[in-house]
Amino acid sequence: MIVHDGQRRPEAHRPTVVFGSGFASREVVRGLVAAGRPVVVVERGGREIGTADAALSQVAFRREAVRSGGFDFGAQVPPDFDGVPRFVGLGGTASLWSGKWRALDEIDMRRRHDDRQWPFSLDELEASLAAVACAYGIPSWSSDATLEDWRTEVEAHDLRLIEIFEQRPPVRLIDQWNELERSGLVHIVAEAGLIGVAHTGSEVHRLDLETPQGRLAIEPRDVVVACGGIESVALSEHLRTGKRGDGARFGGYMDHPKGIVGQLEARRGRDRLAHLMTLRGQASRLIAFALPADEIERDGIGNHTAFLWPAGHDGSGSGWQIIINLEQFPERENFIRLGARSEVSWRISRATWQDMNRFLERLSKRLSGLLGPVRLESGIQLRGASHPAGCLPMGDGSARQVDAAGRVAGCDNVYCASSAVFPVAGSANPTWTVAALGHRLAAHLGRA
Ligand SMILES: Cc1cc2nc3c(=O)[nH]c(=O)nc-3n(C[C@H](O)[C@H](O)[C@H](O)COP(=O)(O)OP(=O)(O)OC[C@H]3O[C@@H](n4cnc5c(N)ncnc54)[C@H](O)[C@@H]3O)c2cc1C
Question: Which domains does the chain have, with CATH numbers?
Answer without folding.
Answer: 11-447 (3.50.50.60)
